[in-house]
Amino acid sequence: MRCAISPNDPRIGDLVRALDRDEQPAAETWRTVAAAAERLGLARPSYGHVRRLVRVERALRRLRAEARGILTDAGAALLAGRVPPVLRVIDEVNEIRAREELVLQEHKATPALAEALEGVPALVHHPDELPAVVLVARRERELDFRLRDR
User: Fold this and answer.
1) How far apart are the first and last CA of the chain?
2) How far is CA 48 from CA 9, 26, 29, 45, in A?
3) DSSP letters spanning 82-121
4) Dihedral, CA atoms, 74, 79, 85, 89, nearest 10 degrees?
5) Which residue in 13, 18, 120, 141 is deepest, having the highest Cβ count within 10 Å?
6) Using an 8 Å Cβ cutoff, are 15 and 33 in contact?
7) Which candidate, 59, 69, 67, places its Cα nearest to that of 128?
8) What residue ranges do the domains of the chain occupy?
9) Which SS3 state, helix, strand or coil, does residue 65 take?
10) Average pLDDT, the chain
11) 92 touches 70 (CB < 8 A)
12) In angstroms, rounded to a whole number, what is the distance separating the alpha carbons of residues 1 and 23?
């Protein structure tokens, strides 16, 4: 049994998106994806690769469901004859899009940095997004340095 496939092969991501269910463990998704990959003539992906794709896919699904909920509430308000808070809706959807983009980034935080960021309001509700917060903090710091140099 071959167990090596390029992490950049989009077909494995497509299989994970099609076969993953939130209620099943990542190991079950890996077994299903590995069997489907073999049927397609692909090498079996490693468990770690599929697990990473499962985590990303589930996080994206949660964020997209959150965005749908915001837009559904705004639509329901509009249908009920009320004016939805348009600017707030736009801000919330843009925030979700930014979080979605950051979920796709694979940056790891050091334990010391994680401890320093403990209690940050954005992380209280979404602790799994620590790498995204770290990325934003790094980019803001780089921007500060660039602006200071002008």
Assistant:
1) 58
2) 15, 10, 12, 8
3) PPP-HHHHHHHHHHHHHHHHHHH------HHHHHHTTT-H
4) 20
5) 13
6) yes
7) 59
8) 105-150
9) helix
10) 79
11) yes
12) 28
